Amino acid sequence: MKEENRRILRMNDSLLNLLPSNFTKIDSTEKIVKDTVAYDTTNRYRQYLWRYAQVVYNTVSNEKNYLQINKGSQEGIRDNMGVFSSDGKLVGKVVNVSANFSVVMSLLHVQNNVDVMMKRSHNPGTISWDAEDPGLLTLTRIPKSDSLVKGDTVVTGNFSLSYPPGYMVGTIAKIIKDNSTNFYVLKVKPAINFGDLQQVMIVENMQYSELNSLLEAGKKKVEETRKK
After folding, report:
1. Which CA distances in Å does 44 have to 17, 39, 67?
2. pLDDT tens digits for the chain (228 residues)?
3. Per the domain annotation, does 93 fall within a domain?
4. Among 162, 182, 199, 207, which residue carries the largest CB count within 10 Å?
């Protein structure tokens, strides 16, 4: 049974890597040489690459919960890679690696704030955990103009370098109107049972380094300009 589960997970890995959403269309009028990034026959360069791993350690009862997985730097795993369940639901983010293992900061971690969006309206928000109920996350910054109902789906957002957009995070369990602001405070039921995780998928944004370096250089440039 264990070997069959591993075989199915490897199959999921292969199928995930074939999804069109993992590729970015390039401008065919420009010649771009990027030998280290795979591309398909429709002239699209790969943006996301998925790898599978087994969970070897996991906590859910602390304020700061972590997982450990059996893939590390030797398999190409690096900090800030997104981690999903074997069926593509958000788990957390890689925060440390050794040669053969990695540490993942779970969504059930009080310092983990993730950019998400409502699937129906695409309104962006931030999801976090208050360390009270592992079955409920807190979603903020969704405007009251959004016509929400219980059961609405929350997915990964468009503005994260670690997570591809549109993957399941959870569903709205409770809608709270904050009278002091124009935003809801929402309680979200996670799409997964964090205590039952055995196999996960790690996703690499193959443009992460370039995008992050450009952003940090831009911030530094603005700060240096202000000082002059």
Report:
1. 13, 5, 34
2. 555 465 455 556 566 666 555 544 433 333 333 334 555 566 667 789 999 999 999 999 999 999 999 999 999 999 999 999 999 999 999 999 999 999 999 999 999 999 999 999 999 999 999 999 999 999 999 999 999 999 999 999 999 999 999 999 999 999 998 888 999 999 999 999 999 999 999 999 988 899 999 999 999 999 988 887
3. no
4. 162
List C-alpha distances in Å: 97 to 69, 71, 86, 102, 104: 10, 8, 20, 4, 9
Work out the burial of residue 12: count CB atoms within 10 Å of its CB; fewer than 13 is exposed, 13-18 middle, 19 or more buried.
middle
- Residues with Cβ within 8 Å of 214's Cβ and at least 6 positions away in sequence, in order, are none
- Report the CATH number at residue 155: 2.40.10.350
DSSP strand E in 29-81: where? 44-46, 48-58, 64-69
- Residue 190: in which H helix or E strand, if any? strand 183-190
Residue found under tokens 């009080």: 110
Residues in the chain: 228
Domain assignment of residue 160, given as a range: 114-190
* C-alpha–C-alpha distance, residues 227 and 74, integer Å: 43
